[in-house]
Amino acid sequence: MSILEDTPQYTKKDFMSDQTIRWCPGCGDYSILSQVQSVFAEMGVPRHQFAVVSGIGCSSRFPYYLSTYGFHTVHGRAPAFATGIKLANPELSVWLATGDGDALSIGGNHFIHLLRRNVDLQILLFNNRIYGLTKGQYSPTSEYGKKTKSTPMGSVDHPFNPCALALGADATFIARTVDIFVKEQRDVLTAAHQHKGTSFVEIWQNCNIFNDGAFKEHTERKTRDERCIFVEHGQPLLFGDKTAPKGLVLGSDVRLHVIDVNTDEDRARVLVHDTSNQLLASLLIRMEGAEFPTAMGVIYQVERPTYEAAVHAQIDASVARTGGGDLKKALASGSTWTIPG
Amino acid sequence: MQEVAQEATRQVPRTVIDDVVIRFAGDSGDGMQLTGDQFTRTTAVHGNDLATFPDFPAEIRAPAGTLAGVSGFQIHFSSRDVLTPGDQPGVLIAMNPAALMANLGDLKKGGLVIVNTDKFTDRDLEKAGQTSSPLDDGRLEGFEVVPVQLSALTKNALDDMGLGAKETDRCKNLFALGIAYWLFGRDTAITEAWISNKFKAPYAEANLRALRAGYNYAETVELFHSGYEVPPARLAPGTYRNITGNQATALGLIAASQKSGRQLFLGAYPITPASDVLHALATHKDFGVITFQAEDEIAAIGATIGAAWGGALGVTSTSGPGVALKAEALGLAIMVELPMVLVDIQRGGPSTGLPTKTEQSDLFIALYGRHGESPCPVVAAQSPGDCFWAALEAARIAIRYMTPVILLTDGYLANGAEPWKLPEVDAIPDIPVNLATDPEGFLPYKRDPETLARPWAVPGTPGLEHRIGGIEKQNETGAISYDGDNHELMSRLRKQKVERIAQDLPQAEATGSPDGILVISWGGTYGAVHTAVDTAFKGGMRVAHTHLRWLNPLPPGLRELMERYERVIVPELNMGQLSSVLQARFARPVESYTKVQGKPFKVSELLARLQLAQAQA
Q: Is the entire prediction scored with pTM above 0.80?
C-alpha cells in the first residue's frame, strides 16, 4: 500500500461511479452507499487498492456504484471470491457487500467459514429482513410469523441473529449499525477498516417497498434513544434519556438487567463495555424483549492472526528453505533413470 | 543382504520374455496399492516400459476378507512399447480367498497364481462367500498354483523382534513383493531405500526383513520352475521417471505458473479421485503456490475466480459431483472472461456413482453443463504423463483467450502410472501474459482483434478501476446492459472467442489406413484404442486412428478427415457422448462403441469390435 503522502486527497465524489443507481427511491441502501463513499475518501487508501465484492441481491449491486475495482459475483458466494482475491493480492482493501438472504441463506456456509478463517476484509451485511430483489419473500432474518408473499399465513422459520451467528463462527470483529445513522455508521466502518481480520458489520436497512418501517422504533427520534444502546469500549453501558439514563447490569443470574441510573451507586453497578469480553458480547448481541435496547456500535473485537498472513507466511518459509522452487528438480523428484542416446 | 540376493540371482536359469502383466490383489487393508507402487518403481528404474491400473474400492476398510473389500494393482511391463495396463494378467498374487476369486476370472489360462494359503481357513472362505476351498476343489485347474504360507513365513522372519501379531502380519505384503522381485530378477534396493526412508524403527527393520525373507524364500525353496527376465525397453534416450496422472497434472500446473510468471492458486475441496492434485500442490509452496482447501466445491471455484481476478493462475480441481456444483460459478467465469482452469478427474457417475472407478461420462457436462449460452473450451489428457502437457496447454489457452478452460482427465489416468521422459524445461515455451497497465483508452471489454480476449486488468493497478459481474454488459465498456442487440453480440463474441482457439490447434490427422474405417477416440482411452487400431492395421485391416485432444473447439480439418473414411467408430467409456457431439456437428452417422463398467477398455474388446466391423464390410 502506498504511503499516505502518495495518496491523493479524495472527496466522496471521487468514489462515485458513472452508473445510474437503480435502487428504489427511498431505499436505505442510498444512505449506506453515501457513508461508505465518504469513509473511503478518508481512509488514506489509494482508490485502485479498493476491491469491492458482492453476491446477488439489492445490496449486491453496491460495487457498480463505487468507482473502485468491483466484482458482482454469484448469489451467496461472495465470501469465496473475496477470499481468493485477498489471498492473491493481500495488499488490497477488500470489502464485501451482502444482504440477509445472500449471506445467511444461500451463502450461510461461506459466511461462517470466512469468519472462522479471519481473512482481513470487511463484510457489510445489509439486513432488511426481506427478499427485495425477488419482490418480497421472507428472509432468514424475518421475524417468526412474518406475513409475506411466500408466507401468507406467517413465517414458521425461526430467524437468525446475524451478530450471534458471527460470534458463533468466531468472528474477530462484530458491529451493528443502522442505514440512516450517519456518524455512528461512519465510526463503525472506520473501525472495521482498521481491524486486522474479518470485520463483520450488520447494517439494519429499511426496505421501503417490501418491509417498510422494520426498524422504525430504532430510528425515530422519539424512540431511538430508548431502543438503541450505543456501545463504546471502556464506556459504561448507558442508554435512554441523557437526563435520566438507564444502564445495563449483570445479575447474579448471569443475565443482563436494565436499571434506572439515578445515583452514583447505580452508576457504579453499570457494566463498562469491554469489546474483548466474549460473554458480554454474547449477552449484548442477544438482548431481546421490550425493556432491552439493541446494541449498536463495535460489540466485539479481538486479535487473531489473519488467514492470508498465515498462508503467505508458510509460502515465505518454504521459499526461504529451498531458495524457491526449481522446476527441473520438481520434475525429476522420486527415482529417475537415464536411457543413453 | 542385497549382495547375497544378487549373488543368488545369477545362478538361477531365467527365461527371457518380453511382456508381463501382473496383478497384486488383497484386502483394502493389505497394502496392495503400496506393494504395486513399489513394484512399479523398481520396474521403471529397471528400464521396462509400463502402465499401471490401480483398482480399489471406495470404502477405506470394507469388511475384511470380503469380495467388496478387494483392492488390486495391475502392472503391465515390457521390453516393448506399452500403452495399456494389459487385458489379462499372467501372474496373480492373491492375499486371501476373496482376492483370488474376485480376480481369477481375469487371469490368463495357464497363468501363475501365488496364493497366501494361511488365509484359507473355513472362516476366511465363509467371509469370501465360498462353500469350498478353491485350493482343492478343482477351480484352480489349468493354472500354475504356487501356495505360500505368507502369514506364517512373515511371522517366522520377524519372530524375534517383539512386535505384536497384527504388526507382524502387516508386513506380509513386503514378503509377497520379495517373492515377485525374485521371480522377475529385480533388485530390491529401491524398495529397501524407500522402506528405510518411510518407516521408523522397528517397522523399517520389520519391513526390510519381510522383503528380503520373501526374496530369499523364493530363491531357496525353488518356489518356481524358472525365474523370468524382462529386458529393458528401447525407450527414446533421455531421463525418465515414473509418474501418475495426478502428479503430472500438478507438475504441469506448476510449469504453467513458472512459464507465465503468474502465481498458481489452487482452490479445491477434497474429492476422489482428484484430491492428490491438491496434496501434490500443497507440497510445492516454495514455488509460491497457494493451495486453498475450501469449505465446499462452490467456494473452491469462487476463490479460484477471485484469485484469477487478482492476477493469479487460478485452478480448481475436482471430479464429477464437484463439476455439477461449480456450474454456476463457471458460468460467471465465462461471463467475466477471466482465465482459469477447471480440472475434472472423471469418475463413474451420476451422483456418487463409482467414486474410485474410471469413466468418460463428463464430456456433456463439460461442454454443455451450464445455464445460458456459455461456451467453454475443453481439453483432455491421453495418458498419465500427458496430463502434464494437457495441464500446461489448458493454462496457456486460458490466459491467451481470457477464458476458463476445462481439463478432463479420469480416474484411470489419475492413479495409473507410466514411465515419463522428463521434458527439457528450457525448451517449454513461455506463456505470454499482457496485464493491462495503461489507463489511456482502457476499456474492460475491449477485445484483442486476433483472439477476442479482453484485457486482464488486475485490482491494484492505478487508473484501471472498473466493475465486472454476472449481469450482461455492454461490449467494450463493460457497463450493465439489458439491450437485446448487445446481448446477442456478446453471446456471439463469447462463442467466437472459443471457436478461434482452433486457429492455434494442429490439423486433425490419422495414423494407419488412408481409407476404410476411422476410429475416433478422446481422453484416457488413447492407449487401448491406439494399440487395438495399430494391431488391426498391421494385421491388414483398413483402419485408422485419430485421437482428439480438444473437444471444444474440435480440431481443424476433422470434418474433411472423417469424409475420407467410409465408416467412423467412436469408442468411449460412456453411453456415446462424443458420438452425439460429432453427429450433431457434422451431420454424418458414426458408430458408437461404449462401455460403462468403471474399467478401461481392453485391447481385445476393441479388436473384437474392429473385426466385427470388418466382417460386416
A: yes
